[in-house]
Known about the structure:
By secondary structure, the protein is mainly β. Helices cover about 0% and strands about 40% of the residues. It has strands spanning about 5-15, 30, 35-40, 50-60, 70-75, 100, 105-115. About 15% of the residues are buried.
Amino acid sequence: MPPGSDLRIQVKLQNEGFASPLLKRPVYLLLMSEDVALRYATGADPRRWEPGQHTLTAMLSLPNDLPRGEYALFLWLPDQDERLRADPRYAIRLANENVWDAAHGWNLLGTLYVDP
């Protein structure tokens, strides 16, 4: 994926019997490396993610000056309240194993490589 391009992300989510969130909350995709932190609001509404399969689709515009390297892609569902947003205890944790970053409240989706 070259810098300055648009990256189409499609995440398939399977809710296997958990209730969807009751209250509104933002849904972000994060592109992270040691030196770069990019946050993209998706506009998705997780209150609609009732049991069954759901697809989250987003278009991420990569900056022209994005450095070459490997980036982790995270799904972040923080609390709606600005006072609680940065507190990982209020973020939604997916039930998948080995995806939760407890220090930040992020769910790892995978990695991608940026190369001009």
